[in-house]
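Thread title: Can someone regenerate the structure for this chain?

I was given the following input by a collaborator and told the matching structure tokens would be attached. They weren't. Posting the sequence so someone can regenerate them.
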Amino acid sequence: MNINTEVLRNFTARTLKSWSGYQLALDNSCGGDETKEKDKWFLDVLCEQMTISRGLKAEELEEWLTNVLYHDFDLILEDDSSYQIAFFLLEGFGYIKNNNEQGLQQLVSKLPSDEELAKVKRESVRGAENEEEDDEDMEIPEDDEEEEEGPSEPRGPQRQVVVDDDGWTTITKRQ
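Best answer:
Regenerated them for you:
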């Protein structure tokens, strides 16, 4: 199999850059003092994993991603993003393997732009700051049915970040 490793590396790096849960882990140095080095290492081993694993399925890559995030970044993602990223990466890998540049470009065009990513990051940081202020003994009302009255403004990222006493970061979907 003759894979263009530079194209694979650029595609994988671009995909990781758009993965908000992973980027949040990097921003919060969930990998400890070596987070930047681990990020580079993760990109390398992820590309290698896709290249050497014949017939790799999205579920298998998801499990591999989950293990790396857990063991190397003290991160648990409960928002299904690991599967979505695994599926996306394998779709792109298929285009790269078959030298389908047009298919790859169409796939990459589905990723958020750098400007959109920067905006989400700013909103996420503001949201985290607000949550820290409100997080003391906040009770969550159980009757949220009233929100279904009509279109409303987007409320920012739909993820909740929880860091436990041991330093583990868990990112979950907001209810």
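Residues 134-157 have pLDDT under 50 and may be disordered.
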